[in-house]
Amino acid sequence: MRRLSQGLLPLSLPFFLLVACSGSTPTGPVTPTISITNVGSDTMVNLALAWAEAYHKVHPEVSISVTGGGSGTGIAALINGSTDIANASREMKAEEFQQAQQRGVTPVEHTVALDAIAVVINPNNPIDQLSIPQISDLFTGRITNWRDVGGEDRPVVLASRESNSGTYVYFLEKVVRRGDPNSSDLFSPEALLLPSSEIIGLEVSQNPNAIGYDGLGYVTPHQKTLKVAVDETGPFYPPGIDTVKDGTYPIARPLYMYTRGEPAGAIKEYLDWIISDDGQKIVAELGFVPLLGS
User: Are residues 156 and 93 in the same domain?
Assistant: First the structure.
């Protein structure tokens, strides 16, 4: 697969936040005495940063460092003991769980938000909807011209995340392979492997032939989201909070945080706050989907 051209700005360098102390008491600033490290999914990094900032305002004694790098990076950090919480936009793989257990770690999964993966194209592309089989045929390279899915006579340019991304893994399994565990389909070797959702959005917004996929929270007005159906007969549904919650949009997923065993103390308090109304309000503000009932 082709790598990102040198001309594009690498917007997805690892993110890092060490929340500075901002609270105060009558005797002066509160110095953070508790540190929590949080590593993983680039899809979730902006959400995790927003959570960390908001939580610190009400708990100035807690500092939270947030780093991206991809779901695989976060899970590896959890396994080797270098992070307290791993963010992941996919479930842990069986082999990752086994590696953790070999190191005496029992990962515990926490669902913290929901997300739709939006299939995005350039706003000048006349296509409005695609089925999952059509999307699979595009991303595997079986279809290479837009006219074959009802569009103009133009070559298709594929924009994908890199393989360490949980979004890449989810899209490969659920869309490219159509949810078939026996499928060996792969992304076309002509696909551009891009390091972030922001870069995918940039490629799509600038290239009238491009198609990509983004977490719903990263879609901008410079991209066009497609309605998607399970098969060609429809019905076709757009990505959105309502269609994720009612299960009609077919490319939706949970977002996870993993801990080393059952959380306790400050980590448990933080995770409890994330799934509370205060934490889930931030989910909606950033364009993701709050948990059911939130």
Answer: no
